[in-house]
Amino acid sequence: MTVPTLESLRIITVIGAGTMGHGIAQISAMSGANVRLQDALSGGARAGIERIAKNLAKGVELGKVSSEDRDATLARITAFEDLQRACEGADCVIEAVPEQLDLKREIFATVDRATPPHALLATNTSSLPISEIADVVGDAGRLVGMHFFNPVHVMKLVEIVRHARSNPAAVALAVALAEKLGKTPITVADSPGFASSRLGLVIGLEAMRMVEQQVASPADIDTAMKLGYGHPMGPLELTDLVGLDVRLGIAEYLSTAIGPAFTPPQVLRDKVAAGKLGKKTGEGFYRWSADGKRS
């Protein structure tokens, strides 16, 4: 891999226009890159751009974004449905599809064929093994993990995940890109749960067990972590924001990879089975109104 310079990352393709993907596309476009937002779902990429427009409108309302920057950002984003077309000529591809290893491998097999050899490839997984995703890429060294946090346009942390075959120059480029996007990167090894998911999930799962055991209400448990430990958001509110289905998938993987400390509590399984997935469905450990208010 001939690693490009940060300045040459002019075209960034973001795969997946959902919760994470539209946010990654937004900050990429705000940094000055031309962004191709791709989603296999018909109309999915356009819906992602509409969400970006709402985020930017709120930023203008709060005085954090100028109307000129809003318009320029939106002008730099183009919607795509065809994956290969979205990747042709891209300097960087960031994948943000659901946490399914087979799906990510299938996508990167296509991305590998469609992108020029210099392109930096990144997966936004929060727990899956980067090395197994990189196996489908001819030059595995050009693929790294870039784990963003929700909401992407607000949260500052990005985990840059290196695997055994990572090209050090690709890792360094991913770090530089994260900084250009206004984030604070940390570099971690490819291990189950990386750093943040492993630590955060332990707290979240224990909070769920406390709910099961009626130790305290979800609101009081969250207040304990916010006021007692300085967390900006409680573990149960965070679970609702991330998605109970997402946390269940990560917990099931880590319970197998690491051990029983990550065994999903029954309350989590029950809520997911009932379709109570958190903020995106209107109910999880809390109820959520259409305007995003919690009760």
Give the tags.
2 domains, 295 residues, N-(1-d-carboxylethyl)-l-norvaline Dehydrogenase, domain 2, alpha/beta, 12 helices, eight-stranded mixed β-sheet, Rossmann fold
Give a verbal description of the structure.
The protein has 295 residues and is α/β, with parallel strands linked by helices. The protein folds into two domains: 6-189, NAD(P)-binding Rossmann-like Domain (Rossmann fold, 3-Layer(aba) Sandwich), CATH 3.40.50; 196-281, N-(1-d-carboxylethyl)-l-norvaline Dehydrogenase, domain 2. The chain is 45% helix and 13% strand. The protein is built from twelve helices and eight strands. It has helices at 21-30, 44-61, 67-75, 83-87, 101-114, 130-134, 168-180, 196-212, 218-229, 235-242, 244-257, 266-273, and strands at residues 11-15, 34-38, 77-80, 92-95, 120-123, 143-147, 157-162, 184-189. The protein has an eight-stranded mixed beta sheet with strand order 3-2-1-4-5-6-7-8, with helices on both faces.
Category from helices, strands and their pairing: alpha/beta
Task: Determine the number of helices (DSSP H or I, runs of at least 4 residues).
Answer: 12
The helix/strand order is EHEHHEHEHEHEEHEHHHHH
Rg, please?
19 Å
- The general outline is globular
Topology record:
Elements: E1 11-15, H1 21-30, E2 34-38, H2 44-61, H3 67-75, E3 77-80, H4 83-87, E4 92-95, H5 101-114, E5 120-123, H6 130-134, E6 143-147, E7 157-162, H7 168-180, E8 184-189, H8 196-212, H9 218-229, H10 235-242, H11 244-257, H12 266-273
Parallel strand pairs: 1-2, 1-4, 2-3, 4-5, 5-6, 7-8
Antiparallel strand pairs: 6-7
Helix pairs in contact: 1-2, 8-10, 8-11
